[in-house]
Amino acid sequence: ETSVAANGGTRVTNVLELNLTAGDDGMQFVCQATNMALQIDLNESVTLDVRYSPEFIMPPPPTVDVEVGGSRTLNLTARANPGPVTYSWNRLGAPLSKPVIVGTQRAPYGSIHHHHHRGMQHSA
């Protein structure tokens, strides 16, 4: 959009519309305005802080086979902004009393936590 500025010059407005996803969090955009008559450029940048609810980075398998007496490690990783993500484990609709959490880390693109539960059996 172009209009006359208060000082008699020209004022140009530019709008960028985006459909954002969680993957856009942390993206940097640079807008450059150029005055061709004066051969002058002006740059401004903005970094996106996209807010999104927890999502699993790799969805868990629908079933996990475990033999009686065996054990299995389940590794589910989720991300969200803002973080951190908290986890809970349920079995047959009831929370597990003592899941074993063996690791947590912070990734450069957001809060990521690795939680494992050992010895959980899937029963039909």
Would you give an account of this structure?
It is a single chain. The chain has two domains: 2-47, no CATH class; 52-118. It is rod-shaped and about 80 Å long. The chain has strands at 2-4, 10-12, 28-35, 40-47, 52-56, 73-81, 90-91, 94-95, 105-107, 110-118. The protein is 0% helix and 42% strand. It is mostly beta strands and 124 residues long. The strands form four sheets. It has a four-stranded antiparallel sheet, with no helix packed on it. Strands 1-2 form a two-stranded antiparallel ribbon. Strands 3-4 form a two-stranded antiparallel sheet. It contains no helices and ten strands.
Low-confidence stretches: 108-124
Question: What topology, given as strand order, has the largest sheet?
Answer: 5-6-10-9
Could you tell me the radius of gyration in angstroms? 25 Å
Helix content: under 10%
Tell me the fraction of residues in β-strands, as a range: 35-45%
Number of helices: 0
- Report mean pLDDT, rounded to a whole number: 80
List the helices and strands in order: EEEEEEEEEE
What is the CA-CA span between the terminal residues?
63 Å
Number of strands: 10
**Structural domain count:** 2
Query: Main sheet?
Result: 4 strands, antiparallel
Morphology call: rod-shaped
Secondary-structure class = mainly beta
Brief write-up:
The protein has 124 residues and is mainly β. It has no helices and ten strands.
SSE map:
Layout: E1 2-4, E2 10-12, E3 28-35, E4 40-47, E5 52-56, E6 73-81, E7 90-91, E8 94-95, E9 105-107, E10 110-118
